Amino acid sequence: MIDFGQIHEYNSVMSRRLPPLRSLQAFEAIARKGTVIAAAEELSLTPSALSHRLRRLEEHLGVALFRRSNRRLVLSDAGREYLQYIQSAFDRIERSSDRLSSGTASDTLTVHCAPSFAPGWLLPRMGEFMAENPDIELRIHASPSPVDFFRTDTDVEIRYGHSDWAGLSVVQLMEDRIQPLCAPEVLAQVVELPARERLAAVPLILSERAPIQWAEWFALKNIAPLPITGPRFDRGLLSLQAAELGLGIALESRVFAERSLRQGTLVPVFDASYDMVAAAHTLVYPPAFGEVQKITRFRAWLLRAAGKTEAAFG
């Protein structure tokens, strides 16, 4: 049973065991400058002091960050990977510090989500959030790949699935139920037919990225499979729009179709026993962000909006 609205933290640490900041600065400078001497000059230290800080970091991590070759330091594989995270963290600290010191910091909330979720569910509700929170500026980034919180300015992300994402606070928002949907005039032509005959009489639309495909749905509902004769789309919203236009039956998300279902431009082909739960939409963010006011307000609003969607379909 999904515990909606509860905040779970996966693999988060209660106390931080961080390397010394000076050692991190030494490592980043040496890797960037290419030599201990050049890095020492930048940091106004002696080469021996800088080398000592690097040794402390390597002892702390238990790995060699550089290979010593002919009096040169060459990043090891572990060092190259570590450098990416350290430079990203320093970049974020620098950007945040610049914004604060220049007085340009704002209450912009950056939300990352999937391309279908943004127009399919979030965008139609943004006006409500903006009216309730006029002091928070929303910025939406949409892409199919999970965001890296340590390399971007993202505050929160809305993800799809039931995964326990390591190191992140996870708030379950709402289940995603998949069901066959079509235009009301299409259903009127086949409503008197048995289940399989309804589907056989209308082209079946294929959503290539849908979490549940027709073949799986047929198998789980004990219906002999039928050929897919309708158009194919790589985005769920296009499949829903095609179904609204009477081009066939789409096996798609009830969450994304909620507005069309309420307006009556789409209707379920069958009763709820033919639905399938695919996964859940969840809100995730680093635990350290959890008490930031703009995030707590967005989280509370998002849970209320998701609750309305859940209630709309019983």
Automatic annotation (TrEMBL):
GO molecular function: DNA-binding transcription factor activity; sequence-specific DNA binding
Annotated CDD domains: PBP2_GcdR_TrpI_HvrB_AmpR_like
Alphabetical UniProt keywords: DNA-binding, Transcription, Transcription regulation
Keyword Transcription: yes
HTH lysR-type domain sequence ranges: 19-76
Family to which the UniProt record says this protein belongs: Belongs to the LysR transcriptional regulatory family.
Name of this chain's protein: LysR family transcriptional regulator
